[in-house]
Every structure is written in structure tokens, then in C-alpha cells.
From TrEMBL:
Entry protein name: Serine/threonine-protein phosphatase cpped1
Species for this entry: Xenoophorus captivus
InterPro entries, alphabetized: Metallo-depent_PP-like (IPR029052), STPP_CPPED1 (IPR051918)
């Protein structure tokens, strides 16, 4: 049975907002839960003995909201992508949506403000990916 090329997780509350070792807060998961999930995501779908498969088939990105601002980071090959809100903003980001394009070869994502979408639509490279 073929393994998936990309494993992505979509959840409401982010693992972390800026750093995996940040303090527990309303906007992130508790440290013990966060670490357990990050460890599980790094091992997803593979045996513990096969490092090559571990790099190929682990969770590549976690997408979330809840923070109502764009944030996130990368730790141990795992992207934490926190998207701002289409409605109530808590930071400086404008109202918008994150477009995630997944192809056989890549995962590309961008946050687009509603103003940008109205004026010129999505970025051209995303449009091309979504057509394939």
C-alpha cells in the first residue's frame, strides 16, 4: 500500500504560537500535550527504526487558527502555521484566508487579505498549482 507524500494536520488551537518551548497560554496547547503531539507527528505512519522513512512520511505541517493573527514557526522539520481570522482581528493582519495548495510534489500556502483577493485574486503561482 503506497504511503502518502504529504501528511498535514488541521486543528483549531495551535501547538504553539512562536516557539515550541513557550509558556502555556490561552492561545496554545499545554506543553505536555504539545510535546506529545509533536513527537507523534514526527513518527506518523512509520516504524521507529527507519530514519529515511521518518523524514519522508512524518507530518509536514500543522495548520491552525484560534490566535486571530498570523504566526507560527518551524521546529524539527515540522511547520506550525497559524492563520489570522476572516472576521475579528486581534493583531495587525487584515481580514483574510489562508490558501493551501497540495500537489504530488509540494505543499504551498499563503495568507491572502480579502482586499487582495477582491483586487487581483490569488497569487499566480497558487492559481497554477490549483489548476494542476
Amino acid at each position: 500500500e503506497p504511503k502518502p507524500k504529504h501528511i498535514l494536520v488541521f486543528q483549531h488551537i495551535p501547538l504553539y504560537v512562536k516557539s515550541p518551548d513557550e509558556e502555556d497560554d490561552y492561545f496554545n496547547l499545554q506543553k505536555d500535550v504539545r510535546q506529545r503531539l509533536m513527537d507523534r507527528f514526527k513518527r506518523a505512519g512509520v516504524s521507529h527504526h527507519d530514519e529515511q522513512k521518518l523524514r519522508q512520511h512524518c507530518v509536514k505541517a500543522v495548520f491552525s487558527g484560534h490566535y486571530h493573527r498570523n504566526a507560527g514557526g518551524r521546529h524539527g522539520g515540522l511547520d506550525m502555521v497559524v492563520s489570522s481570522a476572516i472576521g475579528c482581528q486581534l493583531g495587525d493582519d487584515t481580514h483574510g484566508v489562508r490558501v493551501v495548495a497540495v500537489t504530488a510534489d509540494t505543499v504551498v500556502h499563503r495568507y491572502h487579505s480579502l482586499e487582495q483577493l477582491r483586487a487581483r485574486g490569488m497569487d499566480e503561482d497558487l492559481r497554477k498549482l490549483l489548476k494542476t
